[in-house]
């Protein structure tokens, strides 16, 4: 007899259908890693989140791309919170603890917004050869500001600053070339290109994220990159007079018509990094196998 599992398709980092970054979410009790990977490949979204019982937290949360399991995924976590809210499990103004490959993460919901703890990564200036990398984005060399160093995070995200929003939108990335760089340099897993010019005046930065190593040419909304971006900008002097727990708005996805908006706060006294975003359900269905 076939098993049946309910699965949700949720647009995360948005409050508008057909926008944001889509993720699959489902309960996954008694499913093996092999089956989770097959399901993620079948659903074929950038990530699918699987929730199951945990002895160490409220739930065990795992994330799979169509290609592999990943250590952290922001938008699929926000989607999981929305899934639990629609199931009547998560209540407004309440917290929940997820056990993940990146540790136990404090998450929850305010009146109309979900929030997620992002592990604070170590970041440092990238000292490798940058010219080969910069040449793969289809931009003139003058679009990159040499006064702002390339910075790499502990998780292998390489942050690259461009001068203008128009430059960011004009990127025509050589995905094959970026993947070749990653295959030769184990410290680089993805490329986060950003500008302090934004679509909306109230925003702090605009980001594009390329991750062929994870099977994602370009991700429309990447919480695991948006959170540490604020740390990168603080280190580079691009944020002046930081206020603890101030929420900075970061934009992503506009260049590929999947607008995402995520707020980020950083409490340096607690060394705590949080992202805040909304989500909407698009499809609810059943998976049979």
Topology:
Blueprint: E1 4-12, E2 21-27, H1 33-43, E3 47-52, E4 59-64, E5 69-70, H2 74-86, E6 94-100, E7 103-109, E8 114-118, E9 123-125, H3 131-134, E10 151-153, E11 157-161, H4 165-170, H5 175-184, E12 190-195, E13 205-211, E14 216-219, H6 223-235, E15 248-252, E16 260-267, E17 272-277, E18 279-288
Parallel strand pairs: 2-3, 4-6, 11-12, 13-15
Antiparallel strand pairs: 1-2, 1-18, 3-4, 4-5, 6-7, 7-8, 8-17, 9-10, 10-11, 12-13, 13-14, 15-16, 16-17
Report the helical percentage: 10-25%
**How would you sum up the global shape?**
globular
CATH class of the largest domain: Alpha Beta
- Can you write the helix and strand succession as a string? EEHEEEHEEEEHEEHHEEEHEEEE
Mean pLDDT: 96
Q: Largest sheet, if any?
A: 18 strands, mixed
Number of domains: 2
Gap from first CA to last CA: 9 Å
CATH topology of the largest domain: Diaminopimelate Epimerase, Chain A, domain 1
What's a quick, concise take on this entry?
By secondary structure, this protein is α+β, with helices and mostly antiparallel strands. It has six helices and 18 strands.
Provide the descriptors you would attach to this structure in a database record.
alpha+beta, 289 residues, Diaminopimelate Epimerase, Chain A, domain 1, 2 domains, single chain, 18 strands, 6 helices
Q: What report would you give on this structure?
A:
By secondary structure, the protein is an alpha+beta fold. The protein folds into 2 domains: 4-119 and 277-288, Diaminopimelate Epimerase, Chain A, domain 1 (Roll); 123-269, Diaminopimelate Epimerase, Chain A, domain 1 (Roll). The protein has helices spanning 33-43, 74-86, 131-134, 165-170, 175-184, 223-235; strands at residues 4-12, 21-27, 47-52, 59-64, 69-70, 94-100, 103-109, 114-118, 123-125, 151-153, 157-161, 190-195, 205-211, 216-219, 248-252, 260-267, 272-277, 279-288. It has an 18-stranded mixed beta sheet that branches. The radius of gyration is 18 Å and the shape is globular. The mean pLDDT is 96.
């Amino acid at each position: 007899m076939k098993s049946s599992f309910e699965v949700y398709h949720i647009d995360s980092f948005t409050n508008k259908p057909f926008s944001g970054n889509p993720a699959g979410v489902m309960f996954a009790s008694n499913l093996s890693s092999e089956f989770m990977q097959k399901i993620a490949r079948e659903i074929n979204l950038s990530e699918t989140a699987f929730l199951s019982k945990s002895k160490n937290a409220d739930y065990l949360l795992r994330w799979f791309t169509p290609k592999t399991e990943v250590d952290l995924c922001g938008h699929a976590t926000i989607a999981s919170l929305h899934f639990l809210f629609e199931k009547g499990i998560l209540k407004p103004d309440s917290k929940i603890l997820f056990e993940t490959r990146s540790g136990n993460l404090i998450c929850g919901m305010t009146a109309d917004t979900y929030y997620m703890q992002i592990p604070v990564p170590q970041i440092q200036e990238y000292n490798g050869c940058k010219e080969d990398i910069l040449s793969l984005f289809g931009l003139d060399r003058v679009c990159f500001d040499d006064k702002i160093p390339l910075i790499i995070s502990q998780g292998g995200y390489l942050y690259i600053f461009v001068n203008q929003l128009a430059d960011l939108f004009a990127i025509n990335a050589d995905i094959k070339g970026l993947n070749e760089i990653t295959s030769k340099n184990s410290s680089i897993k993805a490329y986060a290109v950003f500008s302090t010019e934004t679509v909306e005046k109230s925003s702090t930065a605009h980001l594009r994220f390329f991750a062929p190593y994870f099977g994602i040419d370009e991700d429309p909304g990447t919480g695991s990159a948006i959170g540490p971006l604020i740390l990168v900008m603080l280190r580079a002097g691009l944020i002046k007079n930081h206020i603890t727990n101030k929420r900075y708005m970061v934009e992503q996805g506009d260049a590929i018509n999947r607008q995402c908006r995520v707020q980020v706060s950083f409490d340096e006294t607690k060394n705590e990094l949080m992202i805040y975003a909304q989500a909407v359900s698009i499809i609810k269905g059943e998976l049979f196998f």
